[in-house]
Amino acid sequence: MSKNVKSIKELADELGTNKTRISRIINKNSIPTQKIKNKIVLEDNSVSLIRQYFKNETQQQNETQQQDETQQQNETQQQNETQQQDETQQQNETQQQDETQQQDETQQQNETQQQNETQQQDETQQQNETQQQNETVSILRTELDKAHSHIEKLSNLLDQQQRLALQDKKLLEEYKSEINDLKALKMPTQDTKVEQVSSKQPQEVESVAEEPKKAPRKWWKLW
């Protein structure tokens, strides 16, 4: 084969590609070829065109690949940013939920503490009322005991007074009985006096007749 021509395989090996790609560049760009001994060969001009097209295509592919990679990087970065934003938003929501939960717990603790303080105040007030009632009951019991003692003393005095009254009444009745007895002794009846006068001597009769003229003795001087 002439040194000024190259086969498709040789050019493909030189450019580091395959025959299919070289054939596609030739057909796409209508690059002239030659056929020697039933074998397609390329002259130097055709080889230069194919090299240029291959270089451009390779460069375009590289640019496209680079753009794809850049776009993919941008998409990846955007996804990362979106994911980061989502994570940040989720963290904020979680933090807000935690703060809300903490506020609720604090409010619940305050309410519980307020309820406990109110209950403690009620218990203290109830204890004070109970203590005051107990003190009042104790005072009333003391006063009642004093009243009972006073009533008992009055009852004893009344019993003593009644006993004294009974004794006085009994003594008075005894005095009256004795007085009546003395009156019976000192003032006999008229018949008795007549009998006594008739039975006595004349001198005694005179003394008896003179006896009523004497002043009567007072009975209370007998005591």
UniProtKB/TrEMBL annotation:
- Compositionally biased spans, kind Polar residues: 189-204
* Protein's gene: orf2
Q: What is this protein called?
A: PIL3_2
Please list where the region (Disordered) is annotated: 58-136, 188-217
Q: Supply the alphabetized keyword list.
A: Plasmid
